[in-house]
Records
---
Amino acid sequence: MTAFWVLAPIMVIAALGILFVRKAVHAALLLAVVMISLAVLYAALDAPFLFAVQIIVYTGAILMLFLFVLMLVGVDASDSVVETIRGQRVMAVVAGLLLGLVLVTGVGQISLGAGVGLADANSGGNIQALATILFSRYVFAFETTSALLITAAVGAMVLAHRERLVPKPTQASLAAQRLRDYQDKGTHPGPLPPPGVFARHNAVDTPALLPDGTASEASVSRVLAARGTVRSAPALADDIEELQRQIGDAPHAGRTGSASAEEENL
Amino acid sequence: MSVTPYIVLSSILFTIGCVGVLTRRNAIVVFMCVELMLNASNLALVAFARQHGNLDGQIAAFFVMVVAAAEVVVGLAIIMTIFRTRRSASVDDASLLKY
């Protein structure tokens, strides 16, 4: 019972957390806490097979599926707080409290006794005993399960399928489109110029310089231009005189002095 | 060992799942709360299996898990389809049948 009294408060707190957290990802992680704790409780209740299945199927497969869909839908798709039916939240909480009260008092009042325990049923091993029942008394339900799983797989494929509305663009059609753009709008048909490569900076946020010394707008990404993080290429050369003053070497003093100084630094 | 505490815990978790389904607006979180209710019922099944000393309850819990897995696959695919067409995962936005 130690496992139960340790895990029960954790499970209730995590389950309550699902009601109150704003982000769906946090709700999924709290649900994982509840499910793993449940797996431990199954182990404590002499159900080692269900312990493994709970971990593998629920925590491993179902919760990963939840997280996957959350990623596709967008993590920031959080709850709206607007009530469409007035007073629905309060009514739901009151109804939930009443249901919980009825269930807990009802269950708490019956005396179940000490219980038989599964030592007898599990004597030949839990998994062997489960298999014996599953493939004899419940074999029809087990076979029906296969139909259910196939239906679910086909259903998910049909629902996730997306009909292609336009034909797939081929390399030839893309090239033709590029030249048509050149003919109609004068768009350059070749690749865009690469970003500027300078001695002191060659990241993608530096524009390339045109022959007349102006920066080429096409050489930096439009995203960087929209964010305003494009560097000004001439500004990279602004502090050259300052650096020359710092190393104490006039521009026309000859190269031998600075070359030997560089060798000493190396 | 009495299993009454397990059944009480199972009832509490089921109630929390119920309230979650009724109050949350995000379809995915509503789905998580349904999973919580299924898990709570599983706990009751396993606890009663121990109480009665036979394994039928564990088999039932196993079938519940299989059905839940199939249900999650189809349900999440439906949520994805709704999100793709309506750009929203809120249960209030899927209200075309009301009009």
---
Amino acid sequence: MEHFLQGFVLLPAFAFVISLLIPKHREIALSRVSFIVVGIQLIGVLVFTFLWIMNGFNHIDFKEFSIFKGKEYDFYIDFYVDSISLVYLLIGAVLTFVITRFSQYYLHREDGYKRFFNTIMLFYLGYNIIIVSGNVETLFIGWELLGVSSFLLIAFYRNRYLPVKNAVKIFSIYRIGDVGIIMAMWLSHHLWHENISFLKLNNYELVHHQLVHHSFLGITISLMFFISAAAKSAQFPFSSWLPRAMEGPTPSSAIFYGSLSVHVGAFLLLRTYPFWEQQVSFRIFIVIVGIVTAIIATLSARVQSTVKSQIAYSSIAQIGLIFIEIALGLKALALIHIAGNAFLRTYQLLVSPSVVSYKIRQQFYNFIPRKKTIEDTWPKRFEYTFYMLSLKEWNLDSFMYRRLWNPLKKLGATWSFLTFKNVYLFFLIVFVLGLFLTFNTGLIPEYLLPAMPIIYALLGLLLVIKAFTERNSVRLSWSLIIVNHLCIALAISFNQHFELSHYIWYLSGVVLCGGFGYFLIQRLRGQEKWVSLDRFYGHVYEHPKIALGFLIACLGVAGFPITPTFIGEDLIFSHIKESQVLLALLIAMSLIINGLAAIRIYSRIFLGPHVKTYHESAKRSS
Amino acid sequence: MFSSEDFNEEFCIGNLKHFLPSQGPLKDFIHHNTLHAFQNKPFHQGLTEAAQIFGYKVYLSLEEFQNLFEKREISDVILNQKIDAFNADNLYGISFTKQQLLNAKSSDNDKPRLGKLRSFWKSNYKIDLDALVHPTLFRIIGSYLDQGVAIWNFPHNTEGLISSIKELEKNSWSSFFRTDEVKSILISGNYSLQSLLYQLVGDQTLFEQYLFDQQFAHPGWSGIVAVLSDNPNALVDRRPVKLEDLIMLELLMELDALIDHFGHVWAPLSVKLTEKPTALFDDVKPSPSQMMQMIWQEAYEWSYYDAVLNGIEQSALEIQKKEHSFQAVFCIDDRECSLRRYIEMDDPDCQTFGTAGFFNVEFFFQPENGKMHSKVCPAPITPKYLIKELKSTKSVQKDIHFGKSSHGLFIGWLLTHTVGFWSAIKLILSVFKPSQNEASVSSFQHMDENSELTIENIDNERTEDGLQVGYTVVEMADRMEGLLRSIGLTDNFAPLIYFVGHGSSSVNNTHYAGYDCGACSGRPGSVNARVIAYIGNHKAVRNILKERGLIIPDSTQFVGALHDTSRDEVKFFDVNVLHEKNSEKHAKNETHYKNALTNNAWERSRRFISVNTQKPKKLVHRDVKKRTVSLFEPRPELNHATNTLCIVGRRSLTDHLFLDRRSFLNSYDCTTDPEGKHLLGILNAVAPVCGGINLEYYFSRTDNQQLGAGTKLPHNVMGLIGVANGADGDLRTGLPSQMIEVHDPLRLLVIVEHEPKVVENTIKINPSTFEWFINEWVRLCVVHPITKEIWVYRKGIFEPYKTTTDRIDSGNNLNEIIQTVHENIPIQIIKN
């Protein structure tokens, strides 16, 4: 049975790799590989389900292998399957199977046919890893894959402005979700003193025992999981990203944002249910957020004048209800609800272009001018206020900007004295000083010692904010991202003695990818007059290879699971003590913005309308 | 201070409306020249202005032309001719060598004038107004105009956009504006277009340019508002709206964003301007690379035209008329071009005609239970007649997936648990076993074939909504006579005469209206076909016609029919009125139609990669039909793609040629119309209808991003009136890339069979028709009916034309070519 689980991950991985190797113009080969592999997967899942039922519904746990093993620390891959996973596996296999078939024809002759299937397979791989993961670490690998494939699919029409802008916007929200998981992992280390598997969470006694003694920690971990889940499932206050994600070809919007991707947040809640089951206050909290989401999203859906955003909000509202069901412990009901919602919204999105002819026909025969709605019975002032709020999506979209990104921008602007040249000088001094002090901690006054990690982490954060808000120099921004990682490493080294191997794990990917990215930037600068961050340049048009290389470099420095840095990040956190909440927060913030800054650089240089006028380019507003 | 000497508001609004896209709501998709605003200039001059002022791509790129030259689609001889002609004309004081044309590269220097003024907000003030204003603005205007997507409608009043917003703002705790200041300006009503412009821009000589920059930052929304301000009836659910309102709202929102950002410490845009940008409509001179594109364009067009004219030269003289087994009148539409060829091939004794597919009967049609009427005649005509459908048994199917219930919270909860699983089954079926369902559009739905139509106005006075219900006998006779004379069918009537309208079936197609008959305002031509057949069979009408010299024998009967161009199916109407003898003949003819349709589907399939043309033709036809009900098929048919020709003359001019479905065919017999009386009517329709279709395809092809709608795959339906990409984009006008990707941007060549003198006099009668020809937005040739000499209309005169093509191909195995070639097939002779 275990081999099935490996297969569920390996098959999509295999399809992804093969689809990378097939040449661009071979449409049929590209779609067929995906179609066949997902078909086999579907059969596999069906057979597996059958066997599983025969075996008496027993969950299966299977520790695959350790990637990194230390004294107290074991980063291992673990698979786990129970009824929840099976429902998700089935929904995923059926929908992806149908959609690959659909897209084979639908995307015919489209630029990026290959890219589309690559991304779908990457997405499917990430989805399956999440679903069969047996611990948070494994889940996080899938989580990251899902995030980046989402970014790529939203920015599928990469030479238009809005898809790229929205892709970056949504990536930033996903990033918040990512850090929720990182924080949860960190706190879990301290709670369990090991990387705990989901299987162990089912042990009521064990969980109960821990939580009684660490109730604050318990609540915080639950909250972190919840933030991740809410971000992924577009719950309040993150809801407004979902309609904006509908920028790719209709079938991809249908399975990503209509069904699979948005329900992953609910999956995380279901998976961690045993952990927070006993925290009544937390369950009440989920119910409240669910209710708020359901109401706000339903009102928003009622006023949407575009088909896809209407479906998006309706879906969010149902997921709000699903969250409530989960919090109430109605697991089976929630699973049915999830499946129904996923199928319904996928189909609705796929037939959404037909709405024009359908509704106009209906109207032709049944038109009643200005239908009364329930809201007409409300007092006028209520009606109008609610209408306007709903139309503005309850200001959720502008909220993120006003409260989060704009203050960051202002902060970054105060660092405008940094130029490419003096940043090296400045940094060299501060860093060498720091390095010197780590080896000579005796020189630091006793009372300053606990503050040192904070100082360096703060410095790192400020530098990466500058990287994120830099408007001109690509090299400066890129260098600051690397420097940020070094600062984090330094900060931790003040904290406690840190084994050299941990540094290597953490920094190897950063240095490698950082250097590679820097090389690519220089190369592009050699060939193009305009390489800057003040607008989108769209260089992917003329330099697709550099663009691909740079994307990989960005993912590397952002701690994506392609380099050891991914594990290094987790390692770093294991060195932060339970009491150092501020330090953990600073570093977590650093990591959020770090990834964002890298993706921002990639988007600005390579995506968007091309700077040269001889390429066809759409209006910015379209 | 508010003197309006320089800035004339009314003029400016009019000017904006003139240049904005004039595409109406999706339900009435009507093809038109995308750059109609430049049509008062000669073609190349107009294009140069469009390119330099608005930044549109109006030709293929130099590289694309060079590529075509390499593939020999541009002839060497003709390229040389065109270079020489350009150098000889010496319009711009530059001449080019062939080497220059072959080696030139696209340049990066052609930045448009549009947008420069408003870009100073970004460069001088570091504020991105579009990002701050567009999302809310689009949301407001989209919700205001929404025709039925939203469940809770914009609480509008009958006085218009601004007044509705004012009402909302007055009675709400929330606001669309960031600052209270602008909110209270709006509520007080204490502002005007000019006062706002003074605040924002300052210098009134820049006002018009500013408004162009502003409105052309979202031409889609502005365009639809401009259309609706002049034609509010285009919406079923009326929304009074004026372009001024939209501009005013946008200016207020800009003011709001600026005050929110800077407080009160900012100067109007013109103050910080170091240098005035070039005025938009200052004189324009083409750049060298544009001049080269002009030469290439001419060479490209004439390489194709020349071969066609060579083929026409070789046409046989019209043979003496004989008895025909049946006659069939089709629409002028280029999609009927090949069907006619196959029908004639299957039954060599038949005769086919082409004419505008509304068959000279103009009216509004109201189906049974329909709440409104739809126009079924060319867009510029406003009919006075109404034809109603009675005793229809058809019912409209419903589908819960489109209903509003799935968007409710509690009903939605119930539905996801139930219907959700039904969706899964539908989803799987729709992908693996596509079939007709509630979502599809079928041309045969337009009218119930078993219903009755109120064609004849019986009690003479009966009117509804100011329209006369049905035609009087004389009115019917007038229309029949006009039609028969214009196509030259005045004697030798066959026992059965068919009028075949056309429509199209598709699913998941927001542009479905653009697939139906253009001469019926984007609806299927079934009712028109039925009406004209009824008129033809009418005893009293025939008596009148007899008096007027059109003697239709009693044995002759008319039959209306509808051809579905995407499915290649035909349905005949009212065949129960046929005499027994004709019934038998009709049964025989039906097989001819059937064979021809299968052949036609097979020929069309050569362009579809997903259909294997090598399969038996019946199976190919089945596959072609399947495409029209498949949700995943963005190309149910290729519509008018590749259209380039319009031939006005007798069938003998073209029946020996393989035109590859690229030609509009309008029957016209110059021998019965020596003075060109009927020709005028034909050209009045051909120029705007065929020319409009041609140029819409042309410009959607050369600049699919700005003049076309881009790829349709991410399209999101906005309020049932348009499509946009994603959730908060501008409306996309023009044609999606899937419709134009195989189209070659060539201007329409109209070939008229007549004496040049007569044609010259005829085209000058109607100024708006004349504009098309004199400015060369469509090209015009005349071929002499007997000598087959050819004249080209160039710069206002008919010049004799000698073709340079040696002799076009003949005797090829066409079946083999069709099975193997996906691209355009060169024109060739198929019979001698």
